Amino acid sequence: MGKKPVAALFLCIASVSPALAQSQTAQSPPIVIHAARLLDVENGKIITPGDVLVQGDRIVEAGSSVKHPAGAQTIDLGDATLMPGLIDAHIHLFLHPGAEDLQTVEESVPQRTIGAVLAARDDLMAGFTAERDMGTEGAGSADTAVRNAINDGHVPGPRLRISGNAIDILGGHEDAFHFNPAQHVLSNATYANNVPDLIEAIRGQFKEGADFIKIYQTGPDSVHDGKLSTPYQYTEAELAAAVQEAARVGKHVAVHATGEPGALYAAQAGVVSIDHAVQLSDETMRLMHDKQIFAVPTFTIFEYFAEHAASPAAAAREHQMLDLHAQEFKKQLAAGVPMAVGSDVGPFPHGTQARELELMVNFGMSPLAALQADLLNGAKLLGWQGQIGALKPGYFADIIAVPGDPLKDISVVKNVKFVMKDGIVYKK
Predict the structure, then answer these.
(1) Same domain for 178 and 270?
(2) How many CB atoms lie within 10 A of CB 306?
(3) How far is CA 178 from CA 101, 105, 145, 181, 392, in A?
(4) What is the number of domains present in the chain?
């Protein structure tokens, strides 16, 4: 029940050629979206009432009152707040709830790609109009096809930055453990054990369409007496070589790193983001502040694993990790570490990841700071600064509406009522 309209939308968009879709957007009449409120995220205030004038795929004007050109269509959303489309800087379109290692073994890449297309649709319908996919987990460069299909108007989904298959060492974080060695089960990431391997893997990822590089920098995590223990996977020199190779073609490296010394090596090397960032040293936090390296906490995945653990003992370990993460987060905020919002959605259901903003507020941020981390910092991290993340003239018309005031109650972002991306209404 309730699936037929979404399926109809999916089929309708899939049947429109890219040229026709672009032509229809460019030639469509102007749209004026009206609501009781509008979020000015840069200045940290709510404007009442809120109007946005859209022409084609761009915002022409936004504020308490806008021009109403002849022939303009008006969409009145009533008692709602207009705001920029949400950004998730850490997702996995190719994962779904269940055992990750078995998904990559039991499900073919075509099957997983179909699932990724449906996941992208679910994220868009939840108000996420831009995302960064942090690895296909063994599906190679299949995310290139998903990104391109969205860009060409064949399927609905957020605008995407993709990393292809992430990079890992032999026996590292994403390798295939607990299987019969004689079966030679493949790793969920691309092996690279030294600098030449890293450069070859990075060049291969870019050849196949990656927008950035994702590297697993730390391995299994454990907590002892309030201190996180996690082995590093690459030295600072190795990561620096990876960063330099990506920079050669104007691109970046992001890392999975939960703790030290791996996080420090990543910060010294100059990565663009340290994802998870459970426990960071003072020196790492200083470098991240000085170099403006983003931390992406991904609290939601820690909460999900704690609440869905296989045993009471496992649940206790996961809760211990989440509690430590929350405590350390306050230290990172105090140190001025720049934050972006990423949920690690995939192992938990797509379309539910707005919970991440709620948790960031629960653990120490103000609603405004969390929204600025999501929208302003997210746009910077994804390389779309000045194009998304705010309702301003010339920006892409990525607009959502939520009930209530998100500056007073951040939880309203979990109840998105209206979604527009590129000037096209996907949910109303």
Answers:
(1) yes
(2) 18
(3) 10, 13, 31, 8, 52
(4) 2
Task: Give me 174's structure tokens.
Answer: 């994403």
Over its length of 428 residues, how does the chain's per-residue pLDDT go in tens digits? 333 333 434 444 433 444 444 445 557 899 999 999 999 999 999 999 999 999 999 999 999 999 999 999 999 999 999 999 999 999 999 999 988 888 888 999 999 999 999 999 999 999 999 999 999 999 999 999 999 999 999 999 999 999 999 999 999 988 888 888 888 888 888 999 999 999 999 999 999 999 999 999 999 999 988 899 999 999 999 999 999 999 999 999 999 999 999 999 999 999 999 999 999 999 999 999 999 999 999 999 999 999 999 999 999 999 999 999 999 999 999 999 999 999 999 999 999 999 999 999 999 999 999 999 999 999 999 999 999 999 999 999 999 999 999 999 999 999 999 999 999 999 99
Let me know whether 129 and 262 are in one domain: yes
Nearest to 303 by CA among 228, 370, 356: 356
One domain, residues 142 and 198? yes
Residue 30: partners with Cβ closer than 8 Å, 6 or more residues away: 53, 54, 55, 60, 69, 71, 72, 73
CATH code for the domain in which residue 276 is found: 3.20.20.140
Dihedral pair phi/psi, residue 274, rounded to 5°: -115, 110
268 and 366 co-located in one domain: yes
- Looking from the CA of 149 toward its CB, the CA atoms found within 13 Å total 20
Claim to verify: residue 311 and residue 371 sit in the same structural domain? yes
Beta bridge partners of 295: 274, 339
Q: At what angle do helices 109-125 and 142-151 cross, to 10 degrees?
A: 40
- CATH code of residue 414: 2.30.40.10
The partner residues of 37 in beta bridges, in order of sequence, read 81
Do 293 and 180 fall within a single domain? yes
Residue 194 shares a structural domain with residue 274:
yes
99, amino acid identity? A
Using alpha carbons only, what angle is made at residue 372 by residues 255 and 122, rounded to the nearest 5 degrees?
Answer: 70
Which residues span the domain enclosing 10? 4-85+389-427
| pTM for the model | 0.93
Q: How many CB atoms lie within 10 A of CB 292?
A: 12
Q: Are residues 30 and 8 in the same domain?
A: yes
Contact 274, 263 (CB under 8 A): yes
